[in-house]
Amino acid sequence: MSIDEGTAARVAKLARIRVEEADLPALAQEFSTILGFIEQLNEVDVDGVEPMTSVTPMRLKRRDDVVTDGNQQAAVLANAPDAREGFFAVPKVVE
């Protein structure tokens, strides 16, 4: 598939990318090359191939989903510039 300069200019406008008029032929050629690669990928027969999440088969480490209170209130508030009554204190912004 071949992309002309008009289409390349329209894509650049939709992407909100300013492209100089002199650079449009090179951009159109790059778009055509990318679409050529996509056409090559579409020729590959993938029937019966399971989708992969990684190139190496592995399971993610998991932990038990247990509800806890955290018990880290003091540690969390230790770096706060202003903490009162166990909460972050911030300046009032709405009157």
UniProtKB/TrEMBL annotation:
Keywords: ATP-binding, Ligase, Nucleotide-binding, Protein biosynthesis, Transferase. It is an enzyme of class 6 (ligase). Its EC number is 6.3.5.-. The keyword NADP does not apply. GO terms for molecular function: asparaginyl-tRNA synthase (glutamine-hydrolyzing) activity; ATP binding; glutaminyl-tRNA synthase (glutamine-hydrolyzing) activity; transferase activity. The keyword Nucleotide-binding applies. Pfam families: GatC. It catalyses: L-glutamyl-tRNA(Gln) + L-glutamine + ATP + H2O = L-glutaminyl-tRNA(Gln) + L-glutamate + ADP + phosphate + H(+); L-aspartyl-tRNA(Asn) + L-glutamine + ATP + H2O = L-asparaginyl-tRNA(Asn) + L-glutamate + ADP + phosphate + 2 H(+). One of its GO terms (biological process) is translation. It comes from the Bacteria. Allows the formation of correctly charged Asn-tRNA(Asn) or Gln-tRNA(Gln) through the transamidation of misacylated Asp-tRNA(Asn) or Glu-tRNA(Gln) in organisms which lack either or both of asparaginyl-tRNA or glutaminyl-tRNA synthetases. The reaction takes place in the presence of glutamine and ATP through an activated phospho-Asp-tRNA(Asn) or phospho-Glu-tRNA(Gln). HAMAP family: GatC. Heterotrimer of A, B and C subunits. NCBIfam families: gatC. Belongs to the GatC family. This is Aspartyl/glutamyl-tRNA(Asn/Gln) amidotransferase subunit C. The gene is gatC.
